[in-house]
Design brief:
Helix content: 55-70%
Mean pLDDT: 77
Radius of gyration: 13 Å
CATH topology: Cyclin A, domain 1
Distance between the termini: 28 Å
CATH superfamily: Cyclin-like
CATH class: Mainly Alpha
Order of helices and strands: HHHHH
Strand content: under 5%
CATH architecture: Orthogonal Bundle
Shape: globular
Largest sheet: none
Number of domains: 1
Length: about 110
């Protein structure tokens, strides 16, 4: 990232959580865990791959996807894409890079 700062919000869309909470009755504690997990994923990703030229929002959305999975709340890439300006393909590629760089297994 150019500025040297790692920003996740507003890159992790709060409206995604708001709409998901209404549909699935996810509690606020789980939503907070997902946000924290996503923030840590972004920080770790950029520490290990500081030269990534991709838009930070794409990494943020992919981190949100992974954060949801790691906390037992399953959204699809399409669910995330519908609430963002990013296509499924962009988020999927960022997700694959996050898996590779952070050593995460497929779920």
């Amino acid at each position: 990232m150019k500025s040297g700062k790692i920003k996740l919000f507003p890159y992790v869309p709060l409206r995604l959580f708001q709409s998901s909470v209404a549909k699935t009755k996810i509690d606020s504690e789980t939503a907070d865990k997902i946000r924290e997990t996503a923030k840590e994923l972004v920080k770790t990703y950029y520490k290990r791959n500081p030269t990534d030229a991709r838009a930070p929002s794409t990494i943020g959305y992919a981190s949100l996807y992974v954060g949801c999975m790691l906390n037992g709340f399953y959204l699809t890439l399409e669910d995330i894409s519908r609430t963002t300006s990013k296509g499924v393909g962009s988020i999927r590629e960022a997700y694959k890079d996050i898996q590779k760089i952070l050593g995460l297994k497929n779920r």
